[in-house]
Design goal:
Elements: E1 3-16, E2 19-32, E3 36-40, H1 47-54, E4 62-67, E5 70-71, H2 77-86, E6 88-91, H3 103-114, H4 119-132, H5 148-160, E7 166-170, H6 178-194, E8 198-202, H7 206-209, E9 214-219, E10 222-227, H8 231-239
Parallel strand pairs: 3-8, 3-9, 6-7, 7-8
Antiparallel strand pairs: 1-2, 1-4, 4-5, 9-10
Helix pairs in contact: 3-4, 3-5
The structure holds adenosine-5'-triphosphate (ATP) and magnesium ion.
């Protein structure tokens, strides 16, 4: 199988004044097409930083990040935009919705930028998706008229509307009640099963993690371990020491995703 994402010794440091703050310290990771991969780790461990590198929102300080066969450091801005628009769907932790646009227009935006579908085709797709995420009643509301959980669902619909082959989801169920969260998880799993969409999602939620085909854990910007997603392995996981910088991560599959 081909890796759709491949990180080799990727590091990321942020400059705070004159001090470099390491957020990722030599992460090597291959994600195969069709995986349903969970990234676990405490707050500040580097989950968002990692997703930003894979999502071409940011570039590594050193090391390489390959997405769909492209070394992201070698792409022009235009090529990066193309990759983000046509291959990747990103559900941001902070949603990043456009405040002046209503729900429908926020979800329509990537389709307009792609310029591939007619107005009626766009409408069909958007309405079906808004139905699916439970926002049909809110199509004409703007983000500031919505709850946190509703905004999160708009962000989810916007990321999925182009039917990307890779979806990056930063804590996609963090603001949702358990029923809505399960509904979103079911939708993600269905796309993973039927469209072979690759999902990489960060989460703190053990229930969400338990649905993953594999789990990697970050601690202080390093990959710490991989594991089965059952409760016993979770306990095991907590015991494991961070791996050496740059070491390639052995990961176990955790069975089917359905
Ligand atoms: N733009 C930035 N400037 C400076 N430091 C940053 C920036 N973004 C992240 N960091 C730092 O990098 C580290 C990793 O942050 P990151 O947001 O990736 O963690 P996280 O695992 O996503 O946490 P959370 O679970 O709280 O979302 C943290 O120490 C954080 O303070
Ligand atoms: Mg984060």
């Amino acid at each position: 199988m081909n890796a759709i994402v491949s990180l080799k010794n990727a590091t990321k440091s942020y400059l705070l004044g004159k001090v470099a703050v390491p957020a990722l310290c030599g992460v090597s990771l291959d994600v195969q097409a069709g995986e349903f991969l969970s990234i676990a780790g405490p707050s500040g461990s580097g989950k968002t930083t990692l997703l930003n590198l894979v999502g071409c929102v940011d570039t590594p300080t050193s090391g390489t990040v390959e997405v769909a066969g492209h070394n992201t450091a070698q792409l022009s801005e235009r090529e990066l935009t193309r990759l983000r628009l046509h291959t990747i769907g990103f559900i941001f932790q902070s949603f990043n919705l456009v405040g002046v646009l209503d729900v429908y227009r926020n979800v329509e935006l990537p389709l307009l930028l792609q310029g591939r579908l007619s107005g009626s085709e766009r409408q069909k797709r958007i309405v079906a998706l808004l139905d699916r995420v439970g926002l049909r009643e809110h199509t004409r509301h703007r983000p500031n008229e919505l709850s946190g959980g509703q905004r999160q669902r708009v962000a989810i619909a916007r990321a999925l509307v182009t039917r990307p082959s890779l979806v990056l989801a930063d804590e996609p169920t963090a603001n949702l009640d358990s029923v809505t969260g399960q509904n979103i998880l079911d939708l993600m799993k269905e796309l993973n099963r039927t469209e072979k969409t690759t999902f990489i999602f960060s989460t703190h939620d053990a229930r969400v993690m338990s649905h993953a085909s594999s789990i990697v854990r970050l601690a202080d910007g390093r990959l710490a371990a991989s594991a089965h997603s059952d409760a016993a392995s979770q306990a095991e996981l907590a015991e494991l020491e961070p791996m050496q910088t740059g070491e390639r991560l052995p990961r176990k599959r955790v069975g089917g995703t359905s």
